[in-house]
Amino acid sequence: MKQSTLLKVASSSILKNKMRTLLTMLGIVIGVGAVIVMVAVGNGAQLQIKNQISSLGTNLIIVMPGSGTPGGVNQGAGSYNKLTVADADKLKRDGTLFAAVSPVVSARVQAITPQGNWRTLVNGVSTDYLTIRDWAPSSGAFFDASDVASGRKVAVLGATVAKNLFPGVDPVGQQIQLGKVPFTIIGVMAAKGQNAGGMDQDDVILVPYTTAQTRLSGNVRIGQILVSAQSTEQMAAAQDEVATIMRDAHHLDGADDDFTVRNQTEITEAMSGTTRVMSALLAAIASISLLVGGIGIMNIMLVSVTERTREIGVRMAIGARGSDVLTQFLVESVVMSLLGGFVGLAAGYGGAALLGHLTGWATSTPLSSVVIAVGFSAAVGVFFGFYPARKAAGLNPIQALRYE
Amino acid sequence: MSTTNKPVIAIEKVKKVYAMGTNKVFALRGVDLVVEPGEMIAVMGSSGSGKSTLMNILGCLDVPTEGTYVLDGTRVDGLSRNALADLRNQKLGFVFQGFNLLPRTSAIDNVELPLLYDRSGRKLDTRALAKQALERVGLADRLDHQPSELSGGQQQRVAIARALVTQPKLLLADEPTGNLDSRTSIEVMALFQELNDQGITVLLVTHEPDVAQYAKRIVEVRDGRIIRDHPVATRRSAAADLESAARSDSETVADVLEEAA
């Protein structure tokens, strides 16, 4: 039998039992739809976390103070701060795998303007900070190398600070008092939103680290050094290089590290690992409904074979081979499950969009889920259609013709 | 039609044994039969006589336990399931008692069906051939009717068209009039006679002596053996019977038949 004829025979028999076909397809529609929605939700969550983490900075390596153990009592991370600006300078000078290096000198201060005041974090950084955080001012400008070198009292506001202290006004050119020191606002950063930990990254004021050290923290120790590796592939090597340079800078032959190096991929992996498990779980639960849909197809195909025993007998009597009958029933179940798969695909896409719209969850339907949905529904059709089809093909034509 | 002299059917010492548990049932105990091209044979016998088994073997639906069967020059016994299917498709046309048309399928689609299973590789205009076959049985105006929209006689005509469409060597009819009233039965027999006159070999199984009288030769089967094989002395013409029934329109066909007998 020709392919076109086979399809015609299968589709005509599907069309002759509209209600039954619809109900059978519904199982597959729900199965495929559920898989797609669940994959979309899981995928969306993963993507969101990835975006949040990469908003921390590109290929970020963080050097933090180490833990001190004075008298055998470990004081925990950050208790033994030996980081200095000189370390940051050495990293910048000697590093071969770094795109940018910036010290971070942090202080919590009360920011005061004639309109109001706001307690916030002041980060003293270098010009490299923009590269590291992949960030840019939305109005005004960032301070330049000469501002840093001469420790000018210039400040760049985060979007949240600007909104709270200068509602509806452009803060560029205005004065702001940080602690007791007056600064000139030269720019406002673009909004970056919350980070993965839920902290507002825009509730910050950036100033040159030199100014921060002399005017705000009054301490030669610095909170951390941010390093950006040149590429993601070089993260591990870059991290090793950071450690080597730091040990050299601190003259630590043989002694324990007095600093900690962490990188962003560790954080990313930990968080996306969790969501990966979650989305796999969701997809697994949804696949169960696909399985149930498949069993529905098998059930209907078995009923259909029994009901059409005479028809099978007639077809055999007029010359259909067993393989013709097998193919006919197999094509029928595959066409049915594929149709269900396509409808389920549309329903899944619609459902994911609707869910995203109603709940505000990020949903993302990868193209691969289309391939998987269609492939799986065809596979379900073949797998669950095979047994009934083989049963039909194996019928004895004499008994089939006599079947009442 | 084939003009060679080889018989359409030649079976020799055919036996069929079924195993029913530990018992053996001898459905056929050695049957010889030769059917020449152009014959019209009625196989008669009561139920259990073995005529259905004989029919199944002749129809290549079943294979004999012993003996040989040559259909139009092809040795049938020992063939595979697929080869039997192809043989049924190429050389045989089946007409059943219960019509066995596909429900919810138009007449022309039903008739076209055997051509869709054609494996000979020749190019066929299946649609045109199906239409011709329906025209041949007088249903040119019913091409798109479904079986449920046709009378019993018309349904059997569609079934005959389906059997004819592959231009088979042999038309096998199993109780073709069993589900029809007597007038329609005669109409269907008239069609068989007409087709036989055109050169088609017809073998029909029946238990009605009236119907058998329309054949040229009668073979009687009992207990798995052919007990009588004789030509019909006074063959009846179904067309003539219909005419005389039409003339005496107050009487039923059955009465006419009784009178004529």
Q: Could you estimate the helical fraction of the residues of chain A in percent? A: 55-70%
Number of domains of chain B: 1
β-strand percent of chain A reads 15-25%
Q: Give a count of the beta strands of chain A, DSSP E runs of length 2 or more.
A: 10
Q: What is the count of helical runs of chain A?
A: 13
**N-to-C series of helices and strands of chain B:** EEEHEEHEHHHEHEHEEHH
Query: What is the CATH topology of chain B?
Result: Rossmann fold
- What gross morphology of chain A would you assign? elongated
Q: Report the major sheet of chain A.
A: 6 strands, mixed, barrel
Number of helices of chain B: 9
End-to-end separation of chain A in angstroms reads 28 Å
Q: What is the total domain count of chain A? A: 2
Description:
The complex is a heterodimer of chains A (404) and B (261). Chain A is an alpha+beta fold and 404 residues long. Chain A folds into two domains: 3-52 and 270-402, no CATH class; 81-257, no CATH class. Chain A is built from 13 helices and ten strands. Chain A has a six-stranded mixed barrel with strand order 2-3-8-5-7-6. In chain A, a hairpin with a 2-residue loop joins strand 6 (175-178) and strand 7. In chain A, helix 2 (18-54) crosses helix 11 (322-359). With 261 residues, chain B is an alpha/beta fold. Chain B has one domain (9-260): 3-Layer(aba) Sandwich (Rossmann fold). Chain B has helices at 51-58, 81-91, 107-116, 126-136, 152-164, 182-197, 209-212, 238-247, 253-260; strands spanning 9-20, 23-35, 40-44, 66-71, 74-75, 92-95, 170-174, 201-206, 217-222, 225-231. In chain B, the strands form two sheets. Chain B has a six-stranded mixed β-sheet, sandwiched between helices. A four-stranded antiparallel β-sheet of chain B has the order 2-1-4-5, with helices on one face. In chain B, a hairpin with a 2-residue loop joins strand 4 and strand 5. The longest helix of chain B is centred in the last third of the chain and has 16 residues, at 182-197. The chains are: A alpha+beta (404), B alpha/beta (261). At the A-B interface, helix 1, helix 10, helix 11 and helix 13 of A face helix 2 and helix 3 of B.
